[in-house]
Amino acid sequence: MAERIAKFLGRAGICSRRQAEQFIAEGRVKVDGSILLTPATLVDESSKVEVDGKPVAEPLKTRVWCYYKPVGYVTTHHDPQGRITVFQDLQAHNLPRVISVGRLDLNSEGLLLLTNDGGFSRFAELPKTGWARRYRVRVYGRLDRRALQSLKNGITIEGIHYDRIDVEIPNSSSIQTNNWLRITLFEGKNREIRKVMNHLGLQVNRLIREGYGPFELGSLEPHQILEIPSNIISKFFQIAN
Predict the structure, then answer these.
(1) What is the domain class of 3-55 according to CATH?
(2) Closest listed residue to residue 161, CA positions, set 197, 200, 192
C-alpha cells in the first residue's frame, strides 16, 4: 500500500515526519534515483528510498514501551538548557530510535509511552481517538467540591478552553492541607492539570500519570521500562498502522 514518504521515513526510524520534510527541502532524499522535491510523494514496497545516499530499509513493525519517567527529566531529545532528558536516561536500555506519545513536564512523573512509529504516536494523541489520561495528583489548598465537579463540563482560563476533566475527590479533607485527587483528562493540553488547579486556588506538588488509554503504569518504578507484547499492540493499533 502506498504511503507518503514522510510517514515511510518515520516508520523506518530515520526521523520524524517534520524532520523528513526538512530532509526533503535540503535535497537529502531520493526515490528511485531522483531527488525528491515534495513531501507529498507516495512510495510503496517497490520504491527504492535513499537518505544521504544510503538505502532505507523497510519500516519496522510498530513497537510500544511503557516507561516510568522520573521527576527532573525533560521529554525531549535535545534540551537547549542542558537539562537531562528522558532519552538520555533510556540509552542504557539499547532501544531503537523512539519518540514519546505526548509529554510529561519536568516536575511530573509516571507513565510515558514510547514508540518507534510516528503514526502510532499521532493516533494515540488525537482527541478523537478517545484515549483517557489518568493521573494521581497531590494538591495543597482548600478543596472546592462544586468547582472540581464542574470541571466535567470543561473550563476556559485566560481564553484557553479545557475540555472535560473528571476529578475523584476524597471523602474528607481539612482546610489548607495536602489531598490526593484522581484526575482523568480526555484532551491533554500543555500543563493542563497544573493550570486548572492553580486557577481553582490549588497548588500541585506531585503529579503521577498512572494510565494512558489501554496502558497502565502498573508496578513500574522510576527509570524502568517495559515493552508491550506485539499481540497486545495488534488488538488496538490496526488503525495506527
Answers:
(1) alpha beta
(2) 192
Chain centre to alpha carbon of residue 162: 18
Collapsing DSSP states into helix, strand and coil, what is residue 129? helix
Q: Which of 79, 89, 105, 166 is catalytic?
A: 105
Q: Does the active-site annotation cover 79?
A: no
Cβ neighbours, 10 Å, residue 171: 4
Mean of the per-residue pLDDT values of the chain? 90
Q: Are 220 and 66 in contact (CB under 8 A)?
A: yes
Please, are residues 150 and 143 in contact by the beta-carbon 8 Å criterion?
Answer: no
Q: Read off the pTM.
A: 0.78
The 10s digit of each residue's pLDDT in 117-153 is: 877 888 898 888 889 999 999 999 999 999 999 999 9
In the numeric block, the cell 518515520 is attached to: 10
Mean pLDDT of 216-236: 91
- 64-128+215-236 CATH: 3.30.70.580
Instruction: Give the fold, CATH level 3, of 132-212.
Output: Alpha-Beta Plaits (3.30.70)
